[in-house]
Amino acid sequence: MAGKIVDLKGSVLTVTMLQLHSADVEECKAALSEKVAPARDFFVGATVIIEPKQDPEDPMFLALMVEHLHQLGMIPIGVRSNNEIIKEQAQFTGLGVFPEEDVKQRSRREPEPAKAEAEPVAEQGLVSAMTINRPVRSGQQIYAKDRDLVIMGSVNPGAEVIADGNVTVYGHMRGKVIAGYSGNMDATIIVKQMDPELVCISGIYRLADDIPAEFKNNWVVISQSQQAIEFQSL
Questions:
Q1: Pick from 20, 16, 19, 60: which is nearest to 42 by CA?
Q2: C-beta separation of 230 from 223 below 8 A
Q3: Long-range contacts from 35-39, C-beta under 8 angstroms, 24+ separation
């Protein structure tokens, strides 16, 4: 008798919810492209559930949005709606349908970054923070595995600073900053001057235009609570 051919196992799928507040598909496509442009690589491979907030007039609305998501490297898997028109379009497009009360939003985790600049970590005892005594240039990626990360200079646009622990930036933060990369929900980010492309703690993220302006020019502490990013001025 042949061995086991198929197996089904329970899993918690991390997804990005895409809320669409317009029924104009071209308007939605343009807005989405602009939204993800500063951190496009972050969303490559992201599983997406589409949540239209307006009744679409175009019978190809969802099909066109699905095509655009694929062009951005994202993976649409379903829609969240109780609207019959949207559900019919979803079935035609091959998307799953999730009732509004059954789907909880959870932000996706970023793919594991290259660890070219990571330093060796001792397996036992206390591990000091990784300290970078220079600016982080565009295109560079710094990863502090199993430890905190301290940047004494600025982080330029297009650069990434990532830590399994906390991240502190004593300069101008203009790239992407990720703390709690391995799942530490208690990790924090402390920044002297913040104007980042993306802020992320343990898979929960905020893009640049979602960050309140009052937190962008002074010392700020960033933390994660109940699946949301929180900001506090120092």
A1: 16
A2: yes
A3: 35/207, 35/209, 36/72, 36/207, 38/157, 38/197, 38/198, 38/207, 38/208, 39/176, 39/197, 39/198, 39/207
Reduce the DSSP state of residue 187 to 3 states and report it.
coil
Give SS3 for 226: coil
| Domain ranges (residues) in the chain | 16-102, 130-233
> For 59-90, what is each residue's pLDDT tens digit?
899 999 999 999 999 899 989 888 888 888 98
The model's pLDDT over 134-147, given as tens digits with 9 standing for 90+, comes to 999 988 889 998 89
Q: Assign domain 16-102 to its CATH superfamily.
A: ACT domain (3.30.70.260)
> What are the tens digits of pLDDT across the range 193-219?
988 888 888 878 888 888 888 888 789
Class of domain 130-233: mainly beta
What contacts 120, CB < 8 A, 6 or more positions away?
Answer: none
